[in-house]
Design goal:
Radius of gyration: 19 Å
Mean pLDDT: 86
Number of helices: 6
Shape: globular
Oligomer: single chain
Amino acid sequence: MKEIRNILGWLGMAEEQSILLDAQKHVEETYKTVAYFSDAVEAFIQGDLAAKAKAIESVRESEHQADILRSKMVDELSEGLLLPPDREDLMHFVKGLDKIADWTNGAARILGFIEQKLPENILGNISSATALIFASISKLKEAIQSISKNDLKKALEDCQAVDHIEHDADDQKKLLIETIIHAKLEPATLLLCYQLAEYLEGVTDKIEDAADFIKVLAIKSK
């Protein structure tokens, strides 16, 4: 009977527990960056600028922690604890997760610059786009948990869900940009809102990239 290849080949190997622990922490930290960003958007919509600033700072700190974990893992991987195929798999995966955190932090920075009160239809579309990001990262997290347990069918279903959400995010970006174009915004706010729309959709792209990698691993493991 063919042995099912575990995710990245690093689960259950005692000498690699340190890397595994950091990888799990990295996944959780990436998830937290998105959760904090969602809090920042909600505070902005409610007009609670203090809560918005606090949440944006939390995004920045969480992204920084993810970066520290990434650097630590790269150092550990360079010491040759893993065989080359598994090391390359993990490096690609970590870089993918890191891009999610980077782009989420970028979206948070832009949100922090927006001071003008925005029309309700723009706020509604920003909220919808953020909800899609949160749904997408939640499915990615489930996919990672599923493949870690060698539940390949569930992992592929979760990745497929991420794909569907990304398509929805493309449509949502179009709606958001339409409302931005037709709103009477100050030039600086118009530019910032447009950039925010780009980043919001970009985060779902990065999540899809990470999910694609999980999908490939699941297929290779069959």
